[in-house]
Amino acid sequence: MYEPPVPVTVKEGILPVKVKYVEGILRPPRSPLLDRPYEPKVVPLREGRKMVIRMAKKEEGPLLLEVCKKMVDLGISTDFFDLVAARVYAEILGWIRERVKDEYVQIGVVETGELAGLVNTRLWDEKRAISLHTLVFKRRVGAGDPLYLAKMECAFDVLGVEEWQPTFESYYGFRMGCLKTAAQEHPWPEYQHELGGGRVFYNTREQWERYIKPSNKNLLGTRPVPENLLKIAEKPKIPDIEKEFK
To answer: Which option is the CATH number for 38-244: 3.40.50.2300, 3.40.630.30, 3.30.460.90, 3.30.450.20?
Structure first.
């Protein structure tokens, strides 16, 4: 047991601390890069459908948690949706509670007002963005690819990073985020992704500018978003998850 080496005025050996002081230590710092605006856009989906992609708001966090929880509760193991949904739930909760450094969340809303999917990313520093997850709530509409590209677009074109670092849990995710973007691989196990220590893949700014953007012009969508679609996208609703994933 250690005793104080000098006289102290602490009563009964207990030092009360206001939680606001502790919060200042536990809450990660926020990069000013996240103040840069990401303009909403509209992208074409299959069968002539349209989807608005925009930044999510913190007040929409409970809605995003609810839809993730529905997927977990239904035990949708097909294509690793249960694993991804559980991880996204924790990441969204950390985003809401200010326990994740520099995370940003984007959502896709189809013209019927249903939430088609979400993507989330966080900044490692001013030069690197860490791709977290892509999760769709409406299947077979083609929402995944444009959502994944939207978070890359935000990282490279808005925040100005030099490198994009994803890892993958599912086969479709690997095809979408690795093969289609010609992602390269950092040596493993010297480099491990923070999502469970998987292999770290990466895309450079040069790849983004010279290959990925030119190859995916249609999936990158257009701006500005028509007012009627933008208004619908401001109030997203949860689709019938059980019906979507039968």
So the answer is: 3.40.630.30
